[in-house]
Amino acid sequence: MTIDKAIILSAGQGSRLLPLTANMPKCLIKIDGKAILDHQLDALKAAGVDHNVVVGGYRFEKLAAHVEARNDGTSVRLNPFWLAASSISSVWAARDLLDGDFALLNGDTVYATDLLAKGFAACKPGLNLFVQPIAEAELDDMLVEVEDGMVRDVGKTLSPAQARYRSLGIIVGREDKGLYRAALDTVISREGGILNFHHAIVAEIARQDGVHAIVVDRDDWIEIDRPEDIAAWHDRRA
Question: Is the confidence at residue 237, as pLDDT, over 70?
């Protein structure tokens, strides 16, 4: 399938990576000599996605300068509420793009170049979440409960006995007619809604309309939260 546009959520500082993020956003940390963001944009290009938007916040000026230097048509948007709200506020900053065919990606994840293209090809009409089967949950995993190929629930506090998958932080809408945007409005309008991780939107749709689980049973990807994650990626690629 062809994805018209991708939104990369890159507003946070990444305080657990200090001092690496003392003066730059997390997405600009270099992995294998290349910024996390560049890994993602190159993977999106390989998957045929030409319209990419990066939502930033912390050290926004450095993010904007980096994207401008790429000169590949990627644009940036500011989430001015990044410090007071959770990742759902970055989704809100790009809510006008959330229809038709789109991809939402966490801005702190590195993966093999072909992972996106293969995952996109497996997506079905409606909402899709990339997940990986796990034997044991790790710290900060966004856990996912899957049954008969469908996501039943998503959250960091789910029971590991039932939630046997983790999210890759890649959400794809295909032929979406406003379902995801409507769920965003519902979740963010609740009391304390701005404090939700954006996966709460996926959970909302999973309970109401259904979300397809795109199973990625491979280890050539990693979420970069701590210095040891960088070391772990290097070990995998060695």
Answer: no
**pTM above the 0.90 mark?**
yes
Predicted pLDDT of residue 28:
96
Strand partners, 150: 147, 212
Q: d(Cα 160, Cα 174) in Å, to the nearest integer?
A: 29
CA separation (Å) from 186 to 44, 82, 190? 29, 20, 7
pLDDT of residue 135: 87
CA distances from 1 to 6, 23, 75, 138 (A): 14, 38, 23, 32
**Res. 87 pLDDT band, cuts 50 70 90:** very high
Residue found by looking up tokens 């500011």 in the block: 78
Q: How many structural domains comprise the chain?
A: 1
Which residues form the domain of 221? 5-237
Could you report the per-residue pLDDT of 8-30, keeping only the tens digit for each? 999 998 888 888 889 999 999 99
